[in-house]
Amino acid sequence: MRRARAHHGQHRLGYLSPQRNYTLLVRHGDAQAWQWSDDGSQVDISLFVLRETPGGWSASVHETTYRALLRAEMNAALVQADFSQIRWLMPDVTGYYQPIVVARSAP
Length: 107
Hints:
CATH class of the largest domain: Mainly Beta
CATH architecture of the largest domain: Single Sheet
Shape: elongated
Number of domains: 2
């Protein structure tokens, strides 16, 4: 039997008839809206998801609030949680768009 090829993280599709070569295409889209607080300490994020289903298109929205920590606040929280050897890798070094913190946990 031939397993269906999945795209975009689809899984558990099962087995399909061996007489045909199937390619499953999933059409979907997503977008985000970010709204920062006036003092920059929090950001409200809305994730909008569109997905085509056999019955038509479905839409959903998922919302959350993140607290934006300053580097000194993050360092203090890591020290309080018994992390050590804290270092920050900046975007110009990693190529990633935001800083990455690396720390060692206590044994």
